[in-house]
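My main concern about presentation is that the manuscript never shows what a single data entry looks like. The format is easy to grasp once an entry is in front of the reader. For illustration, here is how one protein appears when written out as sequence plus structure tokens:
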Amino acid sequence: MPGRDARAQIPGDPAQIGELEALAGQPLDPEYRHFLSLTDGLDGFRYTMPLLGCRDWEDPERSRPASVFRDITLETGPLTEVGLPEGTRVFPIYVSAEGSAGVLMLHHGDEALERFWWSSAGDDMFFHTFRDLLACVADGSYSPRHLFD
């Protein structure tokens, strides 16, 4: 079986991206969708942790930590406590190895609110777009909104 690096070099095809969107239960952020169509995931997004792609969700060993992170995040309290509307859908696109940090893609129907939530040991940051998230990680050129600014 090819390693993750080899799989990431293969773009996600429209059917795989559609399946991921169905699994997420929300429309994919357009920039995240475009990213997946160019390269299906990225190892080393933040240190050694991957930015998940379509094929990662086909591998229970790779997707389990992300699902656990999402479930724990949802169990810790209502999303309204972090300023998100009731009924907001969340889907993990990144999680650290120890499960203490992750990025959730959000869908809430409010264009004024952010689409990505980075939660890490009490430091919650929000990003409007996937591009904003990448800019913050890559070179710090985007300053996210922090929950407790």
Notes: The chain has one domain: 4-146. The longest strand covers residues 89-95. Helices lie at 4-8, 14-24, 30-38, 60-75, 130-139. The radius of gyration is 15 Å.
